[in-house]
Amino acid sequence: MMIKSLSVAPLTPPPPQSSTAPQKMAIPGSYGWPVIGPLSDRLQYFWFQGPVNFFKKRMEKYNSTVFRTNVPPAFPFFIGVNPNVVAVLDVKSFSHLFDMELVEKKNVLVGDFMPSVKFNGGLRVCAYLDTSETKHAQVKNLALDILARSSATWVSSMTTSLDTMWDSFDSTLSTGGSASYYLPLQQFLFTFLSRCLLGADTSASPEVEKSGTIMLDKWLALQLLPTISINILQPLEEIFLHSFSYPFWLVKSDYQKLANFVKNEAKEILQRAQNEFKLTEEEAIHNLLFILGFNAYGGFSLFLISLLSNLENQKNIHEELRKEVREKIAQDVLSFETVKQMELVNSFVYETLRLSPPVPQQFARARKDFELSSHDAIFDIKKGELLCGYQPLVMRDPKIFENPEDFVYDRFTKKKGGNELLNYLFWSNGPQSGTAGPSMANKQCAARDMVPMTAAVFLAYLFQRYDEIGISSGSITSLKKAK
Ligand code: HEM
């Protein structure tokens, strides 16, 4: 088991050894009758069971973390989309998704279905490129370069935008009542990410400043609707949201405005993209817009909501977090250096990423025939088969995480073996620790380190600024400023 694991997943050290050696086994499960099988699985996935139970129930039924199933979208208007996948639902089998010798990632960001390239200026942007494509290296290196260069001003840009957001919460709450945090969070993210990732000031374009978040939300929704479970208005969702893909023209004019914003306000980075990374101006604009809008804004919009809702559920540890933050911030300077020393804050962030990975599903296609190991068995995978990992279950693997269902806020601290556990934290499509990290040779999120650090700064800012924070059902309900 140890040797197999090492050979299949170079980014990830092998999980602890189990007592019995895994045996070769046929992959359980089936795809059912044509049309009927995929349709029935789609209805179970979106409606009757929901994604978590969909995977969980099949895992129990087959008594295996690896099995065959269909995943949406499917039937009737997704002609040419093959819903057949092999689900991989434990840490060991999921790790194969990171091994670029074994799998390819061409056009499989959200499965066999790929939103029209019209949503990205007619181009296949970085997230859809395989590591074997030269363009992938060019754009990935650009993304890594942007993050490295902006790291010096990241925290100060962020706190400027945080000041604006929390000042506004203070003033709303001072007149009584509460304030929903969804839209303010998105506004904060859009402003600060535009500045850090593009060097662009949103105030340069009044229309984009006012409506940029709504433009991005609509653009994201139209691309992803066929794959997202909402499950509030069934059967209307199945009929209107999950049966066909929405056309780009619905957001065409918004997209054009956002692309113009990048073209006009991100001039320096566009120059660098062309001179140093040999991209055309068009490639640079649409890739930067995707990185800003899809990767960063989309990812953080989901992640910060989970972070705040965990703060709401974990009121009893606010005091401990606040104490750590104030002890570690020397002379009121918030920086990456200071938050790195906040073990509890970081552990809280990692635990949120473990239980609520913002991008729940990852896909990869077998580059060749190979043997895939789960904790319990070994399976034959054929070239061309699509693997589908569902992170919310993988990150509850009981062989790796003790009390996997519980939010254990200090799980990732040193005293609890947190350093070792980071090898198995996969939200970024790769392990959180290890020297390999995101590079042009893999498909790990370019911001593997920046994302948790940003969340830690977000929390540290909050606990530095307030003595008490009240949060309830998506709203800030009370705030008591630090004395
Ligand atoms: C909370 C925020 C974020 C989350 C949850 C997130 C998550 C992810 C995930 C899961 C992937 C892999 C997708 C796949 O291939 O299956 C990815 C890829 C990527 N992310 Fe992030 N990301 C976030 C923020 C960012 C930011 C701030 C950047 C800015 C540079 C970024 C840049 C990228 C890029 C360029 C890729 C493509 C990597 C490649 O093709 O090799 N992400 N991200």
From TrEMBL:
This is Cytochrome P450. Its cofactor is heme. Heme binds at C445. Residues 1-23 are annotated as: Disordered. One of its GO terms (molecular function) is lyase activity. The keyword Mitochondrion does not apply. The keyword Isomerase does not apply. It holds the Pfam family p450. Residues 1-10 have a biased composition (Low complexity). GO terms for biological process: fatty acid metabolic process; sterol metabolic process. Residues 263-331 form a coiled coil. CDD domains: CYP74 (cd11071).
